[in-house]
């Protein structure tokens, strides 16, 4: 078991007042709340802060914790001395399904047995299991076609003595065609196990997309930027362009400007009832004049096709 | 020994999937009163005139769940939740736009 420096986690000195502790906790809770923060370790930091506050906000628990002294460092191997909690009232106050808090082993072994009330989501011994939330990252091609995936989540298991360990939980899931970023899949009964014979919670999987070299998705539409030459733009052309469903022929109408968007119907993330399209944005690529002859060609165009593309801008 | 693989199919929570007042209470672990209050605050807006006919989209489930967490974890009150949810949605949209090439 590793020692947790609750003062360091909250960023307060050991002699901080209860008010300072409360303020530090609230600030961190807002900053790292998983619904608000996009930082990678937000959830872990939010939990750590909650655990630290659970101990330090309670003068009795704080006094017991302070007995270990100031010389321990966060993460250092630690075993509580026997009878460390003698004389404190929370000793042995019944068992309430310890481990349900999601707090660390350090917390559970010191305060867990009698005090599994933290995290505010745990109220009674007999209760439905907690809902579990996870993110899965899939490719755009998988979203386009639908796919099957195997995912492994870690799940806390509480043994007969109230000790907590985590065990991997593997699920094979179907991801339907046409799912879009940010959408969630709810898997009933696949969340945390319930307590005292109550049903398990649900599992929510949120979809995120892997970055793609060519495409990006905006809701149901797939966007692709296609470079074309000035003469393809001016004269029109038929190009082979990739879509998530394979190559298709795309007609560029004569006189197309850069930035023009062309729509390939149904080539986006479609479901049975909703259609996504692929939007192709044209980007004009100007070939470099490398030889004298090529320079001459541009010069001829300049002479024979006088044009001021800035006329609309007034200069 | 060959491994038996059972693939489970969940429900995609999108604008097409609808649920009732009872469903949303069960899924989010909230009372009907909480749902009424959230409707009053404009956090969610069901279709249908009477509570018995109310239909909620599954996108609204997420808003209710987030609001519950914000209330519990950060002691945000309901009007604050409504504001936070709107701002979070806006923020998410802006973050998405920033990622684009």
What this model shows, in words?
The complex is a heterodimer of chains A (about 325) and B (about 100). Chain A has about 325 residues and is of the alpha+beta class. Chain A has 3 domains: about 5-115, DnaJ domain (Helix Hairpins); about 130-210, HSP40/DNAj peptide-binding domain (Sandwich); about 215-305, Urease metallochaperone UreE, N-terminal domain (HSP40/DNAj peptide-binding domain). Helix content of chain A is about 25%, strand content about 25%. Chain A is built from 8 helices and 11 strands. A 4-stranded mixed sheet of chain A has the order 6-7-11-10. A 3-stranded mixed sheet of chain A has the order 1-5-4. In chain A, strand 6 and strand 7 (about 220-230) form a beta hairpin. Chain A is elongated. In chain A, about 25% of the residues are buried. The model of chain A is unreliable at about 90-100 and about 115-125 (pLDDT under 50). Chain B has about 100 residues and is mainly alpha-helical. Chain B has one domain (about 20-100): Orthogonal Bundle (Multidrug-efflux Transporter Regulator, Chain: A, Domain 2). Helix content of chain B is about 55%, strand content about 10%. Chain B contains 4 helices and 4 strands, in the order βββααβαα. Chain B has helices at about 20-30, 30-40, 60-75, 80-100; strands at about 10, 10-15, 20, 55. Chain B has a two-stranded antiparallel ribbon. The longest helix of chain B has 22 residues, at about 80-100. Chain B starts with 7 loop residues before the first strand and ends with a helix. Strand 4 of chain A pairs antiparallel with strand 2 (about 10-15) of chain B, so a sheet runs across the interface.
